[in-house]
Specification:
The complex is a heterodimer. Chain A is mostly helical. Chain A contains seven helices and no strands. Chain A is elongated and about 65 Å long. Chain B has two domains: 58 residues; 33 residues. Classes of the chains: A mainly alpha, B mainly alpha.
Chain lengths: 219, 101
């Protein structure tokens, strides 16, 4: 009997679940790292969306400038692009499970196409809004007349939240590009981890879309 | 060493397509609420409910969390939910600010 056991302490035998030398979560360190990154990034977006809601409730008036046609329809198409790219990404991960490298690469390219379409549509929308006179801390004159007392924070929060999300989509495109090019050297876990990031970007949009767009539909 | 690659048979194409259809259906329902111009407070509650269901579907199936060990799920999900909920502690202050105007 060793000293610890003699003192009545519980000793994990080597090789048990939490005794060291094993993976208690049964995932590799890279995948666990991505999950922890996702956890922290969800707090970033959570804080931004909470700040947006705070500013909206605390303001005397808040613009609801998006007409159903074309603004909401346009942003719905953007949402469909992201949702569909998540489906193609999950297919890429499935193909990589079977070690079908060619199919996995094609599905990743399809995912990148969905992401690129999202960014292009988003930039078109930004261009239109900036053209109308919306900017960080600045409302178009027409909006200021329509919603007197409306907070100029609309522009700051809109560009801040959608901009940070768009940056994530762009980073995801670069990430997936590297995975697609180096597919032969990648393990299945590497492909799966890139998929986790991509799905997270999609997941965040599931909150941005209703809060920023659908709740700002024009009366 | 535990083999991390012995649980990779996660889901079928049919399952993922069904999840994708469910996500689309919830999205179209949310867009419909905007189309009929529902009262904003009720709409907010329904939209957030829909978004939470969508997030759960994405995490469970697309991110494979349903097929992972329970210990991983119990480490990640409660931490995320608690931290996000804690952010809401500040929220009632926005009403106070509104009434100060």
């Amino acid at each position: 009997m060793n000293d610890a056991a003699a003192e009545g302490l519980t000793v994990s035998p080597v090789g048990s679940e939490w005794g060291g030398g094993v993976l208690p979560y049964k995932v590799g360190h890279k995948k666990l790292g991505m999950w922890l990154f996702i956890l922290s990034d969800s707090l970033t977006f959570g804080a931004l969306l909470m700040a947006y809601s705070y500013a909206r409730v605390a303001s005397v008036d808040w613009p609801t400038p998006f007409p159903f046609n074309p603004s909401i329809i346009f942003s719905t198409v953007m949402t469909l692009c992201l949702l569909s790219s998540s489906l193609t990404m999950v297919m890429a991960v499935s193909a990589s499970t079977r070690r079908d490298i060619s199919a996995a690469r094609k599905w990743i390219l399809a995912t990148m196409l969905g992401g690129a379409a999202f960014i292009i549509l988003h930039l078109m929308e930004w261009n239109h809004l900036i053209g109308e006179g919306l900017g960080p801390g600045q409302l178009p004159t027409e909006w200021a007349q329509k919603w007197p007392g409306a907070s100029p924070l609309f522009g700051s929060t809109f560009f801040g939240i959608t901009g940070l999300h768009m940056f994530h989509v762009f980073s995801g495109l670069c990430y997936l590009g590297v995975i697609a090019v180096r597919m032969k050297k990648m393990t299945h876990e590497d492909v799966e981890i890139s998929g986790l990031y991509w799905h997270f970007v999609d997941l965040v949009w599931m909150f941005v879309f209703p809060l920023v767009y659908l709740l700002s539909v024009e009366h | 060493m535990t083999d991390i690659h012995d649980h990779e048979h996660v889901g079928s194409a049919k399952l993922f397509i069904n999840v994708w259809i469910a996500l689309l259906a919830i999205t179209f329902f949310e867009v419909f609420l905007a189309y009929i111009n529902m009262r904003k407070d009720i709409m907010l509650i329904i939209l957030m409910g829909g978004s939470i269901v969508k997030a759960a579907l994405i995490m469970a199936y697309f991110m494979h969390l349903r097929f992972e060990r329970l210990s991983l799920v119990l480490t990640l999900v409660p931490a995320m939910v608690v931290c996000l909920t804690l952010l809401a502690i500040f929220f009632p202050d926005s009403f106070r600010l509104y009434h100060l105007r």
